[in-house]
């Protein structure tokens, strides 16, 4: 059936994308509706109509370029809540919600606009309001989270703050300042896998004992724990006695105190070490930034993370999320003598764009750049790790320079493609793939509109829309450390615009199996079992096509396997 001519809504949204970055979602929805609904490729558009559309795409893109980039500073309250590892909310003296981080947003069924949206008992709100109005009151208000209807196992802490005073609290008030705001944070008793393992190792607890200790700290009764674990109450009581002995605790209250103290101490330690990595400390021991000049005169930036010597890992970044590993991963790499070298490919970060290099020519040029980088650092061989699309670059480097590669790895992607996979991609990733294949003239407009959305201060909105259909990644993004790495990665990607990103898009839908079969070494994949962007079946198909390749499957991990399950990545790099 002949496709109808797109209506005026499509044309108008094409131009609104250039003029109003906040309408990015409407723009993407319109593109999807009018160009790709109910068809696989969009190839049923006649040639004349495609030409007309391409003209509109080019005109709108020229408008974007003439307007330039307008970067918006993140509001102080938004910046503050994004720094908090757990949930964080800022409200003002009029009880209006000023800022709310992603973790806090997910605790409520509807967006928070005012203090009343907490649906807390009126008695609790009255106590809070009295404290807010009492200038002589202590500057900290505390309450059990359950009392004000926050879905959290611990307690909440509210502190008085003022814009422009930094993130520190206000200890005293001589008059009622209308600028006064209130920061809501909390202590969450849920324990992630890493913390649980550390707790067990510290006190010599078995896996079962560690889980029981954590459940006690979360306020669970012995009978509830027995029912949850499907064992007898006597068994739980016996295990609690063993926990008491190992933790040298006098009773259950003492176990709770020790577990809560351990979690709190670990959080403080993390925050202190995290702050030490900020730009205020450019010579930080864990992350070291540098650059050098390539033979053709281009500037290449790179970072070194972890140990200063030891096993070298050449890490080739993905398209969106930069070169940084989580701080805990970098600290572990240092302890384990792993030296991670992360170059910024041409056009990313502050590395100069390679003019007029696309496709194979770009892959070959980057492979040569990597050789120059290793020579510059005096390194003969390295383990090579490609992150997502970085796997295509890792493959090309390993094929052209096998003598420089001691092992070849990838996370989040395999350099293989089958056209029927496109329809199985999550919505936003599918749309970019369809545009890349069928309307490449639209790609500059779409990617620049996305950058404009981020420049306008909507990076979180961009991330959340992109991963709306990938549950494992949504869970990973609830961790403040991971979300911060991702946000910084977006800045890295669009630092010079979107040209480098656009050149990489084609590699996502290119099949490299023939080239991979000519490798002199096996390709090792570390892949999330719950990856919806690149399903595990895609990796398994590559392994069938390229004998000798293998995969390590990581449970409960998605596309962000390196960020959320970095322990598996480090272990695999050292064992293979």
List keywords for this structure.
five-stranded antiparallel beta sheet; 576 residues; Rossmann fold; Arc Repressor Mutant, subunit A; Beta-Lactamase; alpha/beta; eight-stranded mixed beta sheet; 14% strand; 47% helix
Structure, described:
With 576 residues, the chain is α/β, with parallel strands linked by helices. Among the domains are: 87-187, 2-Layer Sandwich (Beta-Lactamase); 193-275, Orthogonal Bundle (Arc Repressor Mutant, subunit A); 287-416 and 512-575, Rossmann fold, CATH 3.40.50.1820. The protein has helices at residues 8-19, 24-36, 47-67, 76-83, 102-105, 122-133, 193-203, 207-217, 222-229, 233-247, 252-275, 327-335, 359-377, 390-400, 427-438, 443-455, 459-466, 471-477, 480-494, 499-505, 513-516, 536-545, 561-564, 566-575, and strands at residues 88-92, 97-100, 140-144, 155-161, 181-187, 287-293, 299-306, 311-316, 338-343, 382-387, 405-411, 523-528, 550-554. The longest helix has 24 residues, at 252-275. The chain is globular. Mean pLDDT is 82; it is low at 38-43, 165-177 and 272-283.
Q: What CATH first level of the domain at 287-416 and 512-575 would be assigned?
A: Alpha Beta
Distance between the termini: 53 Å
What structural class do the secondary elements suggest? alpha/beta
CATH topology descriptor of the domain at 287-416 and 512-575: Rossmann fold
Range of strand content: 5-15%
Shape: globular
Low-confidence stretches: 38-43, 165-177, 272-283
- Largest sheet report: 8 strands, mixed
Helical amount: 40-55%
Number of strands: 13
CATH superfamily placement of the domain at 287-416 and 512-575: Alpha/Beta hydrolase fold, catalytic domain
Rg over CA atoms, rounded to whole Å, is 26 Å
Strand order of the largest sheet: 6-7-9-8-10-11-12-13
């Amino acid at each position: 059936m002949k496709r109808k001519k797109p209506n005026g809504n499509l044309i108008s949204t094409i131009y609104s994308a250039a003029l109003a970055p906040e309408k990015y979602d409407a723009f993407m929805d319109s593109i999807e509706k009018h160009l790709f609904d109910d068809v696989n490729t969009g190839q049923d558009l006649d040639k004349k109509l495609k030409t007309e559309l391409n003209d509109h795409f080019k005109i709108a893109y020229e408008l974007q370029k003439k307007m330039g980039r307008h970067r918006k500073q993140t509001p102080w309250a938004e910046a503050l809540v994004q720094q908090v590892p757990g949930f964080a909310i800022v409200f003002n003296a009029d009880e209006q919600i000023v800022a709310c981080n992603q973790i806090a947003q997910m605790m409520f069924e509807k967006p928070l606009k005012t203090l009343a949206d907490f649906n807390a008992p009126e008695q609790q709100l009255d106590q809070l309001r009295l404290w807010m109005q009492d200038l002589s009151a202590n500057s900290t208000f505390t309450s059990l989270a359950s009392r004000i209807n926050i879905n959290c196992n611990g307690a909440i802490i509210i502190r008085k703050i003022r814009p422009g005073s930094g993130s520190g609290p206000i200890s005293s008030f001589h008059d009622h300042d209308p600028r006064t705001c209130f920061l809501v944070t909390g202590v969450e008793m849920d324990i992630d896998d890493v913390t649980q393992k550390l707790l067990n190792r510290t006190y010599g607890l078995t896996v079962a004992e560690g889980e029981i200790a954590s459940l006690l700290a979360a306020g669970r009764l012995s009978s509830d724990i027995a029912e949850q674990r499907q064992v007898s109450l006597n068994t739980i009581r016996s295990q609690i006695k063993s926990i008491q002995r190992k933790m040298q605790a006098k009773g259950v209250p003492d176990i709770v105190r020790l577990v809560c103290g351990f979690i709190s101490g670990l959080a403080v330690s993390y925050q202190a070490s995290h702050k030490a990595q900020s730009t205020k400390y450019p010579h930080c021991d864990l992350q070291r930034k540098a650059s050098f000049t390539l033979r053709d005169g281009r500037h290449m930036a790179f970072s070194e993370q972890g140990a200063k010597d030891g096993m070298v890992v050449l890490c080739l970044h993905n398209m969106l999320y930069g070169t940084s590993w989580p701080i805990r991963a970098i600290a572990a790499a240092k302890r384990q003598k792993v030296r991670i070298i992360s170059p910024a490919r041409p056009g990313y970060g502050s590395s100069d764009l390679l003019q007029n290099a696309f496709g194979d020519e770009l892959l070959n040029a980057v492979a040569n750049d990597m050789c120059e980088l290793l020579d510059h650092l005096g390194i003969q061989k390295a383990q090579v790790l490609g992150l997502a699309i970085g796997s295509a670059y890792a493959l090309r480097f390993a094929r052209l320079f096998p003598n420089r590669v001691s092992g070849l790895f990838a996370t989040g992607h395999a350099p293989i493609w089958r056209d029927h996979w496109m329809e199985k991609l999550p919505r936003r990733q599918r749309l970019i793939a369809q545009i890349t294949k069928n309307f490449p003239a639209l790609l500059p407009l779409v990617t620049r509109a996305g950058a404009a959305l981020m420049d306008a201060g909507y990076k979180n909105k961009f991330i959340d829309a992109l991963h709306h259909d990938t549950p494992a990644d949504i869970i990973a993004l609830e961790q403040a450390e991971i979300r911060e790495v991702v946000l910084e990665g977006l800045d890295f990607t669009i630092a010079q615009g979107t040209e480098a990103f656009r050149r990489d898009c084609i590699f996502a839908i290119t099949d490299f199996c023939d080239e991979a079969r000519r490798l002199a070494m096996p390709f090792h994949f570390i892949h999330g079992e719950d990856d919806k962007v690149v399903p595990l079946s895609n990796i398994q198909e590559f392994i069938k096509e390229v004998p000798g390749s293998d995969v390590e499957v990581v449970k409960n991990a998605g596309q962000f396997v390196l960020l959320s399950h970095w322990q598996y990545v480090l272990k695999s790099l050292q064992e293979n």
